[in-house]
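hey m, so remember when u said the tokens were messed up on ur end? i reran from scratch. heres the input so u can diff it against urs
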Amino acid sequence: MRVLVAFDFPTALPKNGDYRSLLHAEDWRPTRNVMEAIARLGHEPILQGVYDDILPLVFTIKRKKPDIVFNLLESFRQKRHYEGALAGLFDLLQVPYTGCSAEALTICRNKSYTKLLLRHTKIKFPRSVVFPRGKTNRSIKDLKFPVIVKPLGLEGSDGISQASFVADEAACIERVKTLHETYEVDALAEEYIEGREIYAGVLGLEKLTALPLREMLFTNFPEDRPKFATFHAKWNPEFRKKWGIKNTFAKGIDEKTQADIEQISKSAFRALGLSGFARLDLRLTDKNEIFVLEVNPNPNIANDDEIAYASQRLGISYDQLIQKLLDYGKRRRG
């Protein structure tokens, strides 16, 4: 099977189309992991980066005629709000692709829309207020401080730092202005939920598999500082080492709560029309209340990230996981 691996490229594409010499760098590990797994599975990987011109991707699909696209694309011209449009291109070209549909990617890009669509379920969310770019005159009197102020349409904790945690209205508005000016996106002020940072993965199409729960632990973090997944807490190795931040399998969660999380995860997956794989970011309070913070379609699929580790706990090797995602993509298209 010919598998086109489509991925984000941060600069102009190499003129000779040879990406392999670049993939040894750590930043490219998720793409390299997927490419190598596809080759081990006996398929033919075809690499295509995307930066600021969509035509090379179209030409490669027309010329190489892949059986499926392994979709790692999240941005165009380094703008993430195009993620759904990129998947829509594959629909227009009538080529199957892995992961979630264009519609689902577009919906989940906006955390506020996600909450509206899940309002009819029993899923709990922290209360929040949206501040459209350039506007700060939104009422937040119904919010209970402290709150977290974060970009509405970004992922990977982009724009989230300890400064996102604010204790009063003045600080909230100031942080909103910072996000508007720095990231040029809408901002979301969301009540801070004290509790454990839990990650719940889901695989499948019609029949869903809830993956073992993962958790971000803050083992050496100061007690007087809020513990939540900032950009540095997720991606900065030195910061993680200094403060004893590590991701591991969640322990000490009773069977009923685990079952409740599984039900919530599958319900959200179906209600939002997700497919292939997704991850829910949750907060679990000391009273076992479950709050959904975000629903992430097409999360990181590196061989050392949450989805891969959780799948391995169920006996699904990394190569088997990649094959499952290819199979899901073919079936969804069919």
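this time it looks ok to me. The chain has a mean pLDDT of 94. if urs says something different then somethings off w ur setup not the seq
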